[in-house]
Amino acid sequence: MTSLLSVHRALACRITNASVCSICGSSRGASTSSLALESIVVSSPSLSFKFVAGHGNSHSAAPRMPLLRRRKGQEGENIRSGVSKRRGCCVAQLGFTADPRVSIERAASALLKDAATLLVYQEVFRGAPAQAFLKILLALRRGDDGLKLLESYGEFFKLMAMGQHTSWEDYVLDAILAGEGNPFAEASANIGNLKSIWSSHGVPASLQAAAASDLDALQRLSITESTLSGWVTDIVADVRPEWRTAAASNLSCKTVRKIPAAAEENSNSFGFSTITAGDGSMVDKAELQSQEEHLSAETSESSDRSHHSIPSLIEQDREEWRKKIGGLWRWSEAVPMLESYYASHSLGLVGSTQVMQWRGGKLARDLKRFARAQTPCDLTIHASQRQALLENLQKHAFGFPAQHTLLCGPSGAGKSWLLNLVLSNLSRTTKLRIVTLPQTELKNVNALLEELARHWQLRFVLEIDDLSSRSGEETFMALKSALDGTYQEWPENVLLSVTSVRPEQIRSGTEEATELKHLFGVVLHLPKLSEEDFILSARELLSYRGKPELDVEDDAKQWLHNCSSCTIRTAAHFVRSII
């Protein structure tokens, strides 16, 4: 009866500030909650009973501990967790769980709740990688089978790699900086914009509080790939070791760590199954280590070659802001910082992208423009035009008044070449945004100007290549009306740069012929090349390609003799033919 009373007292105890549990002897913090016993069975020769209670939060992740009690008169006999031969006290669970599924399901459920409670940053989880992340959490919470869980993680890993997101945390931070569909970001970006409803009111306190709440939730959601993949492998215990290693990595990893020897007894230095020779003997581990180091060096060198281009000012600035916010103890502290960021960098794609294209009624990344790391060759024959174009665009880039620019000349004279050269140089030294407008989208130029005017704190160059009579009367009239301000005022933060072959041929309906050059403040002419200019340009192109020692004068003259035109385009064709 004494033992029963002891157990009864243990069941009734409430452990609030104790450092050691009086039943199991486990250490607890000062904030430990009440002890909750799931199932305790006490038996004796005369009676038995069972006490059932709920789970306790404080012990949910602790291992199961044995219960040690010594009965009076039973020398040397311990009654442990389990049933003794004659009588015993069986503790099935003291608020503990040895099954990792329970704690993982709880953690996944808590993260899903954080995602559901977002007030202004819901757009963070609209992207495909974020949706795949939520899919993994749902699978973990539901306790899906291993195959579905592995498929979900594989989809998340692939989407992150295809989007070239270095890590899940960087993805979340980039989405925060984008601020799309976010009233807090919208209000912050339009402070000082007299045409916005947010200009005089400032950022409401309610939006600041909502942003702070969301930022802390997003910080909790920014778990590492190793944590997420670790949850998967805790559920699916029989995955291969190389999968564990790869799944825990991301694009920010220059090298992937080796699998610890204790994790896989027969794994080699690469983390794959042990390699055997043709006669069945084991391959020397030192040789494998040497091969791995050599492969790692080649991979690192290849990676350096593929990423040798210098990041733009926008990319460098964005990386610094990610570090600022990610390094805070609590992301909610970044609310004033983000107000400043949105006010100076604007929102959405425009805030993070320097080269864009208007396509299908919206802005998109221009994947073809500036795809090469190198800029076009700076040719001597274009020196005066290049200087005039550069000075005009620099004025606009730094916020000073500038004129719309027209480059005209015969086909192949190097108009697009020159414009690309100047814009490429400016993109590396300024935060000037470049937007390409295809001729097929000219009729929607007013919609584009309205979109660019929203980003009033940024500067844009709107480029139209090879505008001519083939563009059609409707498209030309739309551009002329936009320049004249017929329907809306041309935005001050947008400068137009156009190339054209024969600008004097463009007419506007039944009206008198309208010369395109009369619509521009700066008109630059690029004439055909002389024979001397052609040879000089060919030599400069060869030097640009690393072949300055070649003597091409005679070959260039022969090429011109067989060619009908003397232009930069034919000079480039000539250089490619002899390299």
Contiguous low-pLDDT stretches (5 residues minimum) are 1-95, 262-309, 508-513
* Annotation field: number of helices: 20
Structural class: alpha/beta
Main-sheet strand order equals 7-6-9-10-11-8-12
How would a crystallographer describe the biggest sheet? 7 strands, mixed
Report the radius of gyration as a whole number of Å.
35 Å
Write up this protein.
InterPro entries: AAA+_ATPase, DUF815, P-loop_NTPase. Residues 287-307 have a biased composition (Basic and acidic residues). Residues 287-313 are annotated as: Disordered. There is one protein chain. This protein is an alpha/beta fold and 579 residues long. It has helices spanning 2-12, 100-116, 128-142, 146-162, 168-178, 183-189, 205-221, 225-235, 241-247, 285-306, 313-326, 335-345, 348-352, 383-397, 415-429, 445-454, 473-484, 531-544, 553-562, 568-578; strands at 39-43, 48-52, 69-70, 78-79, 88-93, 355-359, 362-365, 405-408, 433-436, 460-464, 494-500, 522-525. A 7-stranded mixed β-sheet has the order 7-6-9-10-11-8-12. α17 (473-484) links the parallel β10 (460-464) and β11 (494-500). The relative contact order is 0.06. The model is unreliable at 1-95, 262-309 and 508-513 (pLDDT under 50).
